[in-house]
Structure formats: structure tokens, C-alpha cells
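Q: What structure does this chain adopt?
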Amino acid sequence: MLKNSKAFSSFSAADLPKSKDFYQDVLGLDIEETEMGILSIHLSGGGEVIIYLKPDHVPAAFTVLNFPVEDIDQAADELISKGVDFEQYTGEIQTDEKGICRTGDGPLIAWFRDPAGNILSILQEVE
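A:
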């Protein structure tokens, strides 16, 4: 029934202008503000993510959006130069000085937060 549906993801923020600036100016994404005041992020490949206003917003405690990149160090350096702070983990998941997790069998990955506190990541597949 839903196999051919054009599904999309969504999450909330408490300050849409601040979110729009971050996603558009810092991350360089294509953002459209709809007539209803919702932010629509148009992703490469045709995907879409919606960010909606929620005054009592609580940041997601999990990764809401992942950005695959070809070179995680280059992507991290560029984001750091734009003021992005990467999360630092020292427990079961360990990150280096840039905030990149280079251990385990999965991709190289680094997590950061948007202005609303939602968790995003950049990741590079390891061959």
C-alpha cells in the first residue's frame, strides 16, 4: 500500500528562523519556507525533510539526519570552520579530537547538533 508513497521525514525546532539560517547558510542545503511556515529541506536525490515549529520542543536523543560524505575529515574541517561543534564521546563510542568515531565495523561518523539541539551526523563508508 505505501510502497510507492513519496515518504519524507520530519522533526521539530523551537526557532525556525535560526534553523533556516543553520541549514541554509552553515550546511548549504536548499531550504524552502512553505506557506504554512514550515521549513522544507530538499535533499540531493529527491528526498525531503520537514522542520516544523514546536514551542515546547525537546531535542531528539537520537540522530535525526545523516549526511554521507566522500571525505569525512574534509567535511568536518569545513563545518568546524563554519562554527559547528562536534560531539565528543569517551564511553563505548569514542571520538577523536575532531569528533570522528573511527572504531568499529561501521562507517566513520561524527555527530553534531542543530540550533534546536537535534543530533545530525556526517559519515563516510569504509571500504
